[in-house]
Amino acid sequence: MEDNHSLGSRVFHTIRENILSGKYAPNEELKEKTIGEELGVSRTPVREALRQLELEGLVSIIPNKGAYVVGITQKDMQDIYEIRCRLEGLCAKWAATNITKEQLDELEEIVFRAEFHAKKGNVEQLVELDNKFHETLYKAANSKELQRVLTDFHHYLERIRKATLTDEKRALESIREHLTIVEALKEHNAEKAEKLSCENIKLIEEIAEHTIFITDHVNTMIEERKVVNKIENEREKAIAYHDKIAPMLEEIRYHIDKLELIVDNQMWPLPKYRELLFIR
To answer: What is the torsional sign of CA 151, 130, 211, 204?
Structure first.
């Protein structure tokens, strides 16, 4: 049985992961009861997790209304990439001095496997290997604080990274960047490793911005298509309704025409009733 601390931690990290992975979309309401049922816990650890996530800026809690996903904004993403560029450079610089042969071998193996999966279009495996590459590099720097900060930033952008790795050409370009970093680490060239690592982050940012632009454009087209489909559905309903009442209108016209033959229009202004029936 989990103690309160481990249970709260599990709930917190699960909700956080779901936000960063895109499972919970921006502005989506996070209902304590629903999440509690999904995770098999009471509402209390969920409520505490949401409060923690609000401190991280991933959730907004509105009194008497509920908790809503804030997620990562465009500005947040730009800031994170800029900070990552500097910190990843520092990480590679320190790793050039501290990295072990086992860690170098592991990085080379990851790059080799990533190239294979990129050509096969295996996005899930690519994301996993990208995570392993950076985890190994962070450990090689031999700094717990740097590793913690960079790991958080890396996870913040997981949904964006996954989207960028769907393009084989761009994925291979990023993998080649990783290979050049590994070569610099093998040479224990700290300055070169720092420079290449920062350049790799800038490349990823450019790919991410391009991917987001395309995604936003596609989403806009989807929303526009939904509006068009709604209009077309309403039009079809109107046509169907017209077809349904047309025989009734024809019958009304028939009876009015018969009445016109026997009723004096001066005494009974039939045109008035025609207008009420929308008959011209």
So the answer is: positive
Query: What SS3 string covers 162-190?
Result: HHHCCCHHHHHHHHHHHHHHHHHHHCCCH
Count each helix (H run) and each strand (E run) in the chain, helices first.
Answer: 11, 3
Q: Which residues pair with 62 in a beta bridge?
A: 66
The sign one gets for the Cα dihedral 67, 205, 75, 155 is positive
Identify the helix (H) or strand (E) that includes residue 69: strand 66-69
**Cα–Cα distance measured from residue 21 to residue 156, given in angstroms and rounded to the nearest whole number:** 8
Give pLDDT tens digits for 6-59: 888 889 888 888 887 777 877 888 998 889 988 889 988 999 999 988 888 888
Identity of the residue numbered 67: A
Main-chain phi, psi angles of 212, to 5 degrees: -65, -40
Please give the model's pTM, rounded to 2 decimal places: 0.60
Query: What DSSP state is assigned to residue 263?
Result: S
Secondary structure, 3-state, 70-85: CCCCHHHHHHHHHHHH
68 by DSSP, 3-state: which?
strand
Instruction: Give yes or no for a contact between 81 and 46, defined as CB atoms under 8 angstroms apart.
Output: no
